[in-house]
Amino acid sequence: MLERIIAPGHYRRGAGAIEAAVPEIQALGTRACLVGGHRALAAASPDLEEALAAAGIEIVAKTWYGGECCPENIAAVAATVKETGADFLVGVGGGKALDTSKGAAWQAGVPLVAVPTIAATCAAFTSIAIIYDRQGHFLEISHHAVNPALVLVDSRIIAAAPGRYLAAGMGDTLAKYIELRATSMAAASHLALAGALTLAHLCYDSILAAGPEARAAVEDRAVTPALEKVIDAVILISGLVSGLGGDDGRTAGAHGVYEGLTASPLTRGYCHGELVAFGNLVQLVLEGKDAGEIRQLAAFNRRVGLPVTLEQVGLSPTDGPSLDLVSQAAAGSPDMANMPFPVSAAIIRAALLAADHSGRELQEYITQGGNQRG
User: Fold this and answer.
1) What are residue 129's DSSP bridge partners?
2) In which band, very low, low, confident or very high, does the pLDDT at 1 lie, cut at 50, 70 and 90?
3) Domains in the chain, ordered, with CATH?
């Protein structure tokens, strides 16, 4: 039997999405616990508090998620939910805050309202959580996470967030097609997987077309059709890809490189999607894809502010020990094992350097007056 958790109960996106969700919120109970990042809670709390009050719901706690999606923080948030007697949890913020919230809601046995304040991943839409240790080193992909009952995406809040996060979301979403195209080769064909691949390709094409304009919109803090197209690609359509693809369509080389990069303390200051964006280029190298496809993606990365070189993810092509560490961690990651052919640490190291070389060539070409559209 084919089983998939396809989507949350409700998805609302648009300016004023939080205020418009009072009927759906009322169905979840009368006591809410809010959890998220400090800046995220500050950005979303005014609208959330107004909507919850209009729904006759008491906020019994408002707490920080802990700064990392690790087992200790998930357990702490779950304990707060239980101690306060909250009927449901409202998770607010980026991917790590939302993944912590999904894990905590699963442990506490309550529904979750996911309120992303940045469009940096599809975390608000999915029923998995990416688990790290306290230091931010990747540990596992956990299925001990709830399927959100309600996702509220206020375009005005996304537009007001730093553009770096939207770019990171684009990098993470582009990986859906790059990785699914590879992993689907080794899977038995079925309609859900075919649908996932079609939607992943739609995400890819939509982001390449609308991404630069969307990035410009957030610099102006403006809600535009291009921005809302990218928001839906990053959160809604990308989330559907994960739900439809299931275990046959999971992440692969690009996320394997990301997991390898998190093994180095030098990469700690970079967003998930920024590291995945460089991983996209590395995976294309691993697969021996056409140089024109790699140049097109690298040129897009550069236009929207995503990395194309090792230096732009905190590393140096001459730092042998760090490259060895990253390559070995990537080779041992669960996502790299999803590639349709064996990938060793030596092969990954060579691909990292090849992607870096290509990125530096592109930068030099543009500096000399070339067309960065590739």
Assistant:
1) 142
2) very low
3) 10-159 (3.40.50.1970), 162-367 (1.20.1090.10)
Classify each residue of 109-137 as buried b or exposed e, where b means 16 or more C-beta atoms within 10 Å of its C-beta.
ebbbbbbbbbbbbbbbbbbbbbbbeeeeb
Number of CB atoms found within 10 A of residue 261's CB:
29
Report the amino acid identity of residue 32: A
Alpha-carbon distance of 250 to 241, in angstroms, equals 9
Query: Amino acid identity, residue 3?
Result: E
Read off the pLDDT of residues 124-181 as tens digits, 9 standing for 90 and up. 999 999 999 998 888 988 999 999 999 999 999 999 999 999 999 999 999 999 999 9
At 112, give phi and psi (nearest 5°): -125, 135
* Count of C-beta atoms within a 10 Å radius of residue 225: 11
Query: Which H or E element spans position 188?
Result: none
Phi first, then psi: give them for residue 37, nearest 5 degrees. -80, 160
The pLDDT of residue 4 is above 70? no
Cβ(32)–Cβ(53) below 8 Å: no
Q: What span, in angstroms and rounded, lies between the C-alpha atoms of 291 and 94?
A: 34
Helix (H) or strand (E) holding 337: none
Across the range 90-119, mean pLDDT stands at: 98
Model confidence, pTM: 0.92
Give the count of alpha carbons within 13 A of 138, CB side only.
24
